[in-house]
Amino acid sequence: MHRWKAGYVNELYLLLYRKKVGIFGAVSILLPVLFAVSLQALEPVLGLLAVGGSFPIQMLGFYTALWIPLFLLTLTGDQFPHEVASRTLKLAFLRPHTRFHIFTAKVAAQGTAVAVLLALLFAVTLLCAMFAGTPLGLAEGLSAAKAYAAAFASMLALSAVFVFAAQFFKSASGFVVFGIALYAAAKLAPFFVQSFPAFSPVSYTDWHLLWLNDGVPAGRRITASLFLLSSSLLFFAFGYYKFDRKEV
Predict the structure, then answer these.
(1) What pTM was estimated for this model as a whole?
(2) pLDDT tens digit string along 102-146?
(3) What residue ranges in the chain does DSSP mark as E strands?
(4) Is 209:220 a contact under the CB 8 Å cutoff?
(5) Distance of CA 6 to the CA centre of its chain
(6) Please, which residues have CB within 8 angstroms of residue 85's CB and are 6 or more apart in sequence?
(7) Distance of CA 34 to CAs 27, 37, 44, 187, Å?
(8) CA distance 227 to 200
(9) pLDDT tens, 128-140?
(10) Residues near 147 by Cβ (< 8 Å), separated by ≥ 6?
(11) What is the sign, positive or negative, of the torsion defined by CA atoms of 27, 33, 36, 38?
């Protein structure tokens, strides 16, 4: 356990030292502020309340559909294919750690990064709503927090898919291009195959909306939760299987 913790902390430090992570973090903070300022400026033209209590959820929809998937692709490309190409992964294998420890430490560090990104977004959007004169009440705040927690679960499932796919690449740029194409195809597939969303974790990026609607049956939420959990475990298991047999 001590060795795994040391590997996990090391992966967190590696993430902190990556410029891409810092850029994503900074832009993640600035985007809600820019959106809020722009909407407030357009409020007289729109004739509507631009930034209201739903602002944190509106921004969450954008982040889970586009921004966080892009962040996951970039992070996964750096953690796996890039380290294979630069041979830093080979050095990690020489340390007294099992491949399982190395793999799970990378995955856990990636999950931590997503959690921090969502926490930053939640805090910034709450502040934007407050400064716009429409602060969230306790009930609204708890509901939004529940949606962000649900979004974290769906992003973990998406992360598992990307981590599995990354094991087939030795180039970070090649993986990112493939990942974007795969994600776009998975998003477009339901327009051609109606049953596709039932078998795709990618279709659950807006899963947090289920937890905002009290009219959604509890059985549907449980089914969706079990599907995301099983998808995460399945793709992480497949990813580790390929990682364990990887030649570097």
Answers:
(1) 0.89
(2) 899 999 999 999 999 999 998 888 888 777 666 677 777 788 888
(3) none
(4) no
(5) 24
(6) 170, 171, 172
(7) 10, 5, 17, 27
(8) 9
(9) 877 766 667 777 7
(10) 56, 57, 60, 208, 209, 211, 212
(11) negative
